[in-house]
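**User:**
My hope is that you can spare some time for a protein that puzzles me. This is the protein in question:
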Amino acid sequence: MRYTYKKCLGRFFVIVGVGAVSLALFHACSPGSSSGVDIRPRQGSPITALLKGKIQGIISGDEDIAYHIKEEVACNLPQNTCVCLADKETFQMPFSNLLFPHVWAHKIDHAFLESHPDPEGVKRHRAQEYSSFQRRSYSPADELIVAQANNPLQYPTQGVEVRPLKTIIIPGLGLEEEKRPKHTVYLTATLGTFDVAATVDNVSVSGEGEKHMILLSPYLSALNRQLQFVTYTNTVFHPKTADTVKFATKDHQSFFTIKVGHGTIPRLYNTGYQREYNISALVTIATKTFLRYDKLKDLIDSIRQYYPTITIVIADDNEHPLPVTGPHIEHYIMPFGKGWFAGRNLAVSQVTTKYVLWVDDDFIFTANTKLEKMVDILEKTTLDLVGGAVREVTGYTATFRHIISVEEGGEEGDCLHIRHGYHHVIEGFPDCVVVDAVINFFMGRTDKVQQVGFNPRLARQAHLEFFIDALGSLHIGSCSDVIISHASKIKLPWSKTDAQKAYDKFRYSPSSADNNIHNEVFYFKNRFKCMTSH
C-alpha cells in the first residue's frame, strides 16, 4: 500500500507541483475513512425493489389466457406448506418392516413446545433468530434476475468479481441499437462507484466516482469503445457479498451482479510426493472411548496390523481414565461423561493430516479395511466425505445409506425427510454411490469435517444430526467394498462385566432429557417442525 501512495504522490507532484493539494490526494488514496459505514445485514436496496417490480411486470399481462394444470408435474413443485405424514397401518407379517419399510412421522414442534414452560416466547425467539439468520446470509447474488426479450443492452450475466475495496473493469458492456442523434446509457450501483480507465473522443461521461454514471455519444461505435473502459470500485467493505448493477437506456433496463469478496484461501497439505498413497501421511484415525478400554485395545491392535505408523487420536471421557500409550497415539482426557459429539469435536480438532477417518472404539480392522480405496475416491472426485461398510459378527453388512431432504414449510418451520437409499452410482467406482448420510465409519477431508462440526449438546445418541448440519455443505459418498468389522454385541445377561453394564446404562437408558434436547435441536437450531423417516 505504501508503494501505491508514493506512486499517487509522485505523479501528482510531476503534474501539478503543489504540495498542499498533494496532501489532499494522499487522503483520497488512503483506504481509511473517518465516516462510519453501515454494515448492518441488508436484504434489499432500491435496485432490489426495482428488480422485483420489473419481474412482476414481465410475468403479468397474460392473466386472461387459459391454461391446464398437469397434476403429475405441478405436485412436485414446492408449496411452502409442507406436512409430515406417516404411512397408514395396513397389515403385519414377519419382517414386514424390512421388506416394506414403514415411514413414521414425528411432530417436532408439538413434542418440544408441549414440554416448554413458555411455548409462545420460544416461538417468537426462534422467529427473531431466523430473521437475523436470513439477513446475515442474504446476498444480492441470490436475487432472481430475468432478462427482457429483445434488449439492446449487452452485459455480463455471471463471472464478474471484485475484491473488497478494489477496482475492476466491467467486461462485456455494449449497446446495439438503431442510429439516432444521441446514444445514452446509465449505470447504477449500491455498494460501489463507477469510473473510466480511459477516455474516448466524442463520448461524454458524467458521474465519475459516483454510484450513478451516464455515458452518451452521437456515435454508437465510440460509445461502445468507451464502455470497454468502464470500471467498478467497491466502496463498502464486506468479505463476501454482491452488488446488483443496473445498466439501462431510456427505454430498456438490465441488471447483473458483481460478486464482492476475498478469494478462497487454499488449505493445502504437504504430504510429500509419493507414487502410491502414503496413508500414514494422509490419514489420521479418530475415535472416542467410554468404559470400553478392552474394545479400544482390540481396535488399536487391529489397526497396527495393517497400518503400523498411522496416527490414532483418542478422546476419552471416562470417570477414571486409564493410560493409553504407544507409538503414534494421542490420548486426550475430557471431563467425565462429556459426551459423544463433544468427543468427536475434540478428536477431529487435533487432526493435522489431509483426511480424518472416524471409527467407533469397538470396530476391528480386517484385510477388507482398505483405507487406500477411500483416499483414492476422495483424491479423484469432488467428494468431501466417504463412508464404508460395517460387518457384524453375524455376517450382516450395513452401509446406512440415507437420502436427506428439507421441504419448505412456512412460518411454522420446515419438514425434514430421511429415507434409505442413494442418489446415483459414481462413475469409475462401481461400488460407490452418492448419498447424504453414511454409517459411522467414514473418511472425510479434515477441514470440511471441522467446518461442519459436531453439536456437543448431543451426548449419548447422535449420528444423523451431523449429516443434517452438513446438508448443502458436504458432497458425500458411500463405498460398500471398504469394510470394517464390529465387535460382537451378543452377550448373555449374566456374562456381562460391570464395565459393560455401566456402558449400557449410560448408552441405552431412555432419558426424557435426551429426547427434549434432540427435539430442541431440531425445532430451534435447525428450525424444523416435523420429520419423517423409514
